[in-house]
Amino acid sequence: MAEMTLEGVDARPEDSAYALGRVHSIETMGTVDGPGIRFVVFVQGCPMRCAYCHNPDTWSVNGGTMVTVEHLMDEFQSNHEFYRSGGITVSGGEPLLQPEFLADLFRAMHNNPDGRVHTCLDSCGYAFDPKHPEKFDAVLNETDMVLLDIKHADPVEHKKLTGCDPARILAFGDELAHRKIKVVIRHVVVPGITDTAEECEKLGRLIAPWHNVVGLEMLPYHTMGVVKYEQLGIPYKLEGVPQMDTARMPELRNAVMAGMKKRRAELRSAIG
């Protein structure tokens, strides 16, 4: 993994044919954010305040560096041989806060002269506006896969954990299903919050109507980001919560799959 900040990059907007993006950092050899080896762009700015977020330095919409699509394309091309079975992933922060930039970047990747590049969006979905879905047509038309982060299956508990109501996130999931865009569900398992079989089965029932789901990643809670809170002077809401026992991941993943299977059977039965 090679991660770098973009301090000192001159965006030169007058020279760019594309929308500018506010970027926190890039990772040139990502292996956990989509299939294959990936060029990962971490954008700046996020509307959610997840209690376990390990990138609180990406929250502010005023941080990061203004970067052109051309600059990112140049960085990608310098290692493009490594990405032939992978592609590009844009994470954050929340990428959907910058839909024009994201659409331009993904379109440029699809039109790469060395061959079409697989595009992946890592999103919580909260920036999606269900009243105006057309605002996201351009970016979703250029998106091959979405890593959709579902924080909690219960709306009340979701708001406690993130500060946000999940309605927009679920609407985004519905939109992706309608468009038949491949989705991998991501779910962080936190001891005492999302680590019961009952909660995981609820998650399975929640995502059951989305037949475009092609994968499920159960991510064990860790405390590697705590030092960033200390550096930023931000209280860490999960102080004292232990790291998740990874040995329980298969059991809880099975609970999600069981909930999905049961709910889909109910839906088929209701149709007749």
Task: List the main descriptive attributes of the protein structure presented here.
globular, 32% helix, 272 residues, 8 helices, nine-stranded mixed β-sheet, alpha/beta, TIM Barrel
Helices, by number, come to 8
Structural class: alpha/beta
Tell me the helix content.
25-40%
Distance between the termini: 51 Å
Mean of pLDDT = 94
Measured on Cα atoms, how large is the radius of gyration? Answer: 19 Å
Give the topology string: H per helix, E per strand.
EEEEHEHEHEHHEHEHH
Q: What fold name goes in the CATH topology slot? A: TIM Barrel
Report what the structure shows.
This protein has a single domain, classed as TIM Barrel (Alpha-Beta Barrel), CATH 3.20.20. The protein is an alpha/beta fold. Strands 1, 2, 3, 4, 5, 6, 7, 8 and 9 form a nine-stranded mixed sheet that branches. The protein has helices at 69-77, 99-110, 137-141, 155-162, 167-179, 197-207, 226-232, 249-271; strands at residues 3-5, 21-30, 38-43, 65-67, 87-91, 119-123, 145-149, 182-189, 213-220. It has eight helices and nine strands.
